Structure formats: C-alpha cells, structure tokens
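ugh ok so i messed up the first submission bc i forgot one of the chains. this is the corrected input, ALL of the components this time, i swear. 746 residues overall. if the numbers dont match what u have on ur side tell me asap before i send this to the collaborators (the ones from the other lab, u know who)
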Amino acid sequence: MSAKAGPSGTLSYEQSGVNYDLIDPLKVAAQRAAAATAVHLAAHGFSEVKASRGESAYVVDVGPFYLASIVECLGSKSLVADEMHRLTGRTWYDAIAQDTIAMAINDLITVGATPLIVQAYWAAGGSDWFGDAQRAQALVEGWKRACDTCGVAWGGGETPALAGIVEGGRIDLAASCTGLVNPKERLSVGDALAPGDAIVLLASSGIHANGLSLARKLVERLPQGYLTPLDDGTPYGEALLAPTLLYSPVTEALYKAGIAPRYCANITGHGWRKLLRHPAQHTYRIERVPPVTPVLQFIQRHAAQDDREAYSTFNMGAGFALFVKPEEADRTVQVAQAQGIDAIVAGRVEAGPKQLLIEPLNIRFGDEDLQLR
Amino acid sequence: MSAKAGPSGTLSYEQSGVNYDLIDPLKVAAQRAAAATAVHLAAHGFSEVKASRGESAYVVDVGPFYLASIVECLGSKSLVADEMHRLTGRTWYDAIAQDTIAMAINDLITVGATPLIVQAYWAAGGSDWFGDAQRAQALVEGWKRACDTCGVAWGGGETPALAGIVEGGRIDLAASCTGLVNPKERLSVGDALAPGDAIVLLASSGIHANGLSLARKLVERLPQGYLTPLDDGTPYGEALLAPTLLYSPVTEALYKAGIAPRYCANITGHGWRKLLRHPAQHTYRIERVPPVTPVLQFIQRHAAQDDREAYSTFNMGAGFALFVKPEEADRTVQVAQAQGIDAIVAGRVEAGPKQLLIEPLNIRFGDEDLQLR
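and heres the new structure output, hopefully the right one now
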C-alpha cells in the first residue's frame, strides 16, 4: 500500500491503497468479452437490454418481464468490525450483514427491478472462523433481518473455508441478487431521462460500505484510533459501522404510489460523481445538499479533504439518487419519508454539457471525472 | 490445519484441514433462517419450490416459468494454479476460470434449469494482482470460453481488491448463475424419481474442483512435488488442473432429444455419497463403475486410501449423475457422447432402505454417510 499522505497532509482515496490503474485494463477486457457473450441469449429466445451493460445490474428480456441479476462484495468493512470487536468485545456482524445485502440490493433496484432472491457468499479464512458461535449467529440474524426488510427470499449460498486464499480470521462477504422488472414499464435504464427531471436524494446513514480503505487508513492519525469520539461522543469505529440503508422499500413504495423513476444512481464508490453515471449528455444542477452525517464530517476534517475531494469519494449524506418527473418530486420525497428514509429535492437535469454542478459548494465535476465504461 | 496422516498412513479429507464440525452449525442456522424468508415471495405473487431447499440450486415459481439461482466458489484450486505457475512459468487461469463457472453451472442444471446469465466474482488480495496482464487475460479468456460452451451471457461482475482479507498475491474466484426452468415440466427436483429408474454417470475430466485440500496436502509426500509424473508422464500439478467438464450442453441436448431427467446429482464434495442426495428412501444399486481418471488413481495410491474412502471423497471418474426412465438410459448415453462426454448406464434405483451399493467394489454408503440438510 502506498500510504503516505499528500504534500498538504490530505489523505486521498488513491493514497489509501487501491490502484485503479492496475484494475481498469482487466475490467475493460472483461467488459468486452462479456458483451460478446450476449448473443447466446438469442438461442433461448431472449435478448439482453443493451443499455444495462455497464449499469449497476445486468438486465435480460425473458418475455413477460425483465430479469435482473448482480453479484456484489462488502469490501473491507469487515476489517473495521473485526477491530472494533477486539476493542469492545461486541460483534458487529449483524450490521455488516446488512451492508453486504445493501451492496447488492441497492444496485439491483437502480434498473427498476424488484429484488426477489438473495444468495449468501461467505468465504472464511478457515473452518475455525465459524467456531465463534456469537459472531456466526449475528451474521445469520443480520442477514435474515435485511432480507425481511427488503422482502426477498434468502435462497441459500456458499460458506467455503478458504485457508491460504482468505486470510486467517477474516471473511470475504458478498451477495448475489436476482430480481424481476415487472411490469416491464418499470425498467429504468435511462432512455426516458430528460432535461427538466428532478433529482431527489435519499439520505445515507453514514459512510455505508464505500471509502472504507481511506477510513481505515485515517485511524493512524487519530489519538485514540477507532475509539476516538466524534463530536456527539460516538466512537469513530462504531459510527463507521452504522449499516448501509436498504433502499428497496422506497423503490417498491414508489411503484405502488404510481411513481416510476426515469433513472436511479446508487451512490457508492466515486461518491457524488456517480450522479454522472447516465451515458447521455446532460447537466445535473444541484441547488441543495443534504446534511453531511457526523462520521463523514469527521473523516473530511481529519483527512484534510476539501469539499471537491470529499464529494468525489464519499456519499456525503446522500446514499441514493432518484431522477423523477418534476411534478412527482415532492411526492417522491413524501413516499421515502413514509418509509423512514429522509429525502430532499436537490436539483434538476438540464440541457447542456455533461457535468455535475454542486452550486452550494461551488463544485463542478465533468465527464472526465467519471469513466466507468 | 491438522495435517497429520492417520495411524495407517492414510490421508483422509478431514486430515487435510477442513473441519465441517465447525461449519455445520452455522450452515444449519443459516438454512433455518433462509427457509423462514420464503414467505416474502407471496407479496410478489410468487412462491418457492420447497423441494429445492437444500438442493444444489434454489428455485422460485414466477408464473410462466421457474427461476433458478446460485452462487458457487472455486475453492482452493487457484493455489495449485499459482504453484504450477511458479514452477513452470505457464498460467492456468484460463483452466480455473472454467472450473469456477462449472461449479455454478453444473449445480444449476441439476434442477432442470437452462443457465442464462453468469456473473463473475473475482476478489483479489490487492490491486497488484491485476497487474499481471498475462494471467488476467487468461482469466478473462477462459471465463468467456466457458460461457460460450454453455451458451450463457456473461452479465458482469465484481473485481474487488481486498488487501487484508484476501491474501496478497491470491484471488478468491466465484460465480453466480441465474437460469430458467422453461417449460416448467423440466423441473427435476425429484418428485418423479422412482424405483426402476436408471442411473447414468457422465465422465469427469479429473479431480474437478473438489478434494483439492487433500490433493494439495499430498504434495508433501511426493518426491518431486507437483512435478511428480503420473504413469502417463503428465506432471501431477498439470493433471490436477484439467478443467472441470461443463455439463449443461448435455442437459440442454437431452431436453432437445425429449429426455427429461427425473433427478440429477452433481458429484462434487463428498464424492459418490452425493448419489444419496435425494431426500426419499431409495436404494441405489451400481453395477458398473466408470474408469478412474489417472490423477485420481494416483491420489488414491499415494494417499493410501481404500476404495470406500476414495469414493466418499472424490468423483472417481463420474462427474455428474442423471436419473432417467429405464427406457431412456441408452439414449441418454448416446446424447452425452454426441456432446463429447463419455457416459455409462451404471445402475438403477430400487425400492429399499436409503443406501448406495457400489457392487463392483463391495462398498455400501448409508443415509448416515451424507447429511446435507
């Protein structure tokens, strides 16, 4: 890991150890090879929804409805849970179980899918990982509770012991999810997105499960490490472990309320730059930003990040973006709030060059700031 | 790892480091919690196929067809590929890519599903794993080729860099797969299985991807380690890396030939005991066994295993079992052979206590020898 802070003392995501320059060529090669396999669907009488290539979930037209599927990883948040367990004796595996499911569910719903089935992928560094009954039970309970919240069936999964591949005492948590876009009109891969549409931002609960490499790196700078208190007294490690919000109750409630988002963006890695995810040329003007959760304020301050760096890395209080018709914006906020998730009408889509303007903070991100395909 | 050989010099699977006594309580708790989530499907107008709980793939009735899904892990075969790369300079990641997809596909088809979509889960021990362009390219190419063989669309996936969770220089490979049972009559979760049905065994290519912990442990006993030649001169490590056969071309060809298996068993962990997978009380009488692949003969000899131990651990030449109506047995063999996969009519299902009788080897496995649910 290249772990040094920058010249100004700023800790950036690149400095926290993940080098996308090494991963991206593989990703491009894999995406090309994957795209070339879509032809096989024709032999079964089906076809892919081409616009879903490069989106958060892959969508196939199987006739009466669309089938959406995905596999997603928790990332390194389990390392925070492990360290906090060492420091406090408490297990947070119920919380990170929810994070893992959220990673899959919150991506799957962006295409308009109702999540139906989740499979668990829990790869431990050896069979002895499963010998801690309290931790294992917390993982099972948290996983089930998240399935209950999202109304999905937990189909099964895989619990391999991978000594020599996964580190001893650690676990690699991931989830796959399958859902249906049903009726097909719910598909929201974005053809309908147009100037004038409103941008509604749903609140986040904290850091969620992206940016953890930086958050973990930051601990070295803190006087009491993970036990350093935030302004409200919550230890930093505990605040980091607030589980990612599950947004499918909101998207399902929106459907029942007759509101069909034109497009959705799950705000994960790359922070607010994810608002630029749609391939079309639009300007996204943000006139209101949501309150920043205390743990993200704390990180921004201690990592000495300016707003541009922070908003390009973290969710900064906004976990999910819904692009809706302007006349449906206020009702979208109400529907989300009725599900217990705060929301604001933050701005709108405009004709213009591809850019995101966060006016209250005087930040501009251009097309060059987000290259995902 | 408890790595000592038994008193007689025999190396058993339990001695190779995986302790199922630690994993099984978690599995049982997870299966119970998972089963309790099936009720959620009713809110969407759907229901689970209850008989698929505990089977190799989870099946949901979504109206016009059944939806089947799964996530599966390669296991520790990548460690053999890494070591053979060190010894020979050649990459085997194209081969183990096929293994990974086979783990998912060969399980999914047991329920009668046509696999449609595969997602890749490639979790590396750090971004630098992806810096070896030759290895990364082999992984992509092998993955695509396996998708081509099975006629599935590669939807996308996840390529996280998980330093601190996955060991440096290693990768955790897994695949999720979604398919349809279409028409619904293709469902083969086993209600139809009955005395008189024939057991057709499809050939394996070698060890496939189960029993690798033992196969790796065995290397310590071999004079030239992974380079120790088999009788035919092939180095042991290379023989281990023969990729798992993909059986979906056979099951798809059977459907086109009008043959609907009553039940299927993918012969993976627990070796031939998987023939006892069906929950009903039947006796399975095997009158012919297929030839044992050279690498499995070699392992059995050097691990000093008797036949009972070997057949309870490895596939011993049979990678997949099809239970078909007796009058369709010969045609099933022909259809498999037309797809380039050898097959034999090995025996039949009989009324009687739950047991597997491998007559040519005088082996009996009872219900107590396989507890998966």
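quick check: Chain B touches chain A through 88 residues (CB under 8 Å). that seems consistent at least. The first helix of chain B runs from residue 20 to 35.
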